[in-house]
């Protein structure tokens, strides 16, 4: 009797995940024809490069984004879990397709309004995709891959560097004012993504209690490049000694951690709390004062 319920539960989770991915791609894709492309506001990442190529070579933004993402997936395929890689590849293709085929007219020709609302709409879409256990490729994925290979440099440093390079290029292709608008768009988008994914805070502490703690810990460290700490604990009722896995991660990484825990132990217990400041390896620099 338990097996059918488990399969039914997994089916609902799978349906919810893909529903969020598809809806996120639809909403996020709408941000481009409605707000970003008409005002030449580059959002950074692979789609930002796609906008630059569209302006220079008249290549469709979505198609150019796919071409940019192909080497990123090839480069990082080994460091990504199969489920995450398949969902992200699917989300990238669908998202890029939505940018090119959605028959939506520009909503505003005001660059400031286009920047703000483009960031909000793109943030909602990207947040839903991330909640579905995927990404739309681009700078997030490339930053994760680079951090996995060079863990002494933080994920945030890689992400900021990649976005900054695209914005600088946009400043040369369009103008400096458009590059400044792009900075506003990236900030707004990031804040909205954090709110959609998991509350307002950007850094979270995950406490995981599972009989499969070794597998969970191994996947978090090797697939995500995040550290984990084992806290000694024992069950009050069972009296069984079982370590609690503590992991600090960005809010964008929480859905993937949930997915790893769910895949390894569907009966695990996990709770997530705010970490108001994270300093040290993988996060901000630990300075005095």
Tell me what the structure shows.
- The structure is a single chain.
- The chain is α+β, with helices and mostly antiparallel strands and 289 residues long.
- It has helices at 2-36, 45-57, 61-76, 82-101, 111-131, 138-149, 155-173, 176-198, 213-224, 254-264; strands at residues 203-209, 229-231, 244-250, 269-274.
- The chain is 63% helix and 8% strand.
- It has a four-stranded antiparallel β-sheet with strand order 2-3-1-4, covered by helices on one side.
- The mean pLDDT is 83.
Structural class: alpha+beta
Q: Name the beta content range.
A: 5-15%
N-to-C SSE series?
HHHHHHHHEHEEHE
Give the termini separation.
Answer: 58 Å
Within the largest sheet, what's the order of strands?
Answer: 2-3-1-4
Gyration radius (Cα, Å) is 20 Å
Averaging pLDDT over every residue, what do you get? Answer: 83
State the assembly state of the protein chains. Answer: single chain
pLDDT < 50 runs, ≥5 residues: none
Largest sheet: 4 strands, antiparallel
- Helical content class: 55-70%
